[in-house]
Amino acid sequence: MHTILRSLLASALGVGLFSHAAFAQSAGCAVSRDASARQVFSCPGGVKVTAEAGASFRLTDRNRDGSPDSLSLRSKAVLVDVDSSRHAGGFQVATPQAIAAVRGTQWAVDVASGKTSVLVVRGSVAVRRPAGEPVVLSPGEGVDVSGGTEPLVVRRWPAPRAGALLARLGQ
Question: Which domain of life does the protein's organism represent (predicted)?
Answer without folding.
Answer: Bacteria
